[in-house]
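Appendix B, Record 12. Input sequence as logged:
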Amino acid sequence: MKSKLFPLLGKIFIVISIYFIIELVDRAVYIFLAEHYYFDTKWKILRDTITLMIFLFYSYKMKILTKDDLTISFKPLILAAIIVFLFLYIFTRSDPNQQYNTVQIFRAVSFSPIIEELICRKLILSELNANGYLVTGIVISTIVFVLLHFNFSLNGIIFFLIMNFILVGLQLKTNHIINNMLLHSFSNLLILTL
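Logged structural output:
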């Protein structure tokens, strides 16, 4: 029997590449326009929103994202949120002098969680799990999640590994990506405020 793993990995690579192409084109257009016009914070948020909408549309058309993915599972989500809150409250502290601008807050609370969860948990983990490659899905989604955060200190890696496993558990329990997006947004909001 021919293995489905390599075609699945190829599909995953193509979708991730499409996201980065959308991101690069969007940023290039923004940079070009910024040279000729004054752009403030709202234009950066608009740029990110356009990127997000294009990627969501593409994910829906490619049947990566379905209407079923938008079903909220309240009990597992609330339990995971309590675990994340306790974990973040005990093990992390923000710099009280750190100031976040509107774009950073927007990206942390809405843009990044949606993109990261679509890529790591929906595209990689769920797609590989549905085809019998659960362990491979967990390993690859974990590596991608840690790499997306560019924090390679020992504390950073441990933190993102723990967060990843909470998010993996939630996805495997509910199989509805909206729960992961909400939990990820909640955890990023906590990081900004704790």
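The first helix runs from residue 5 to 36.
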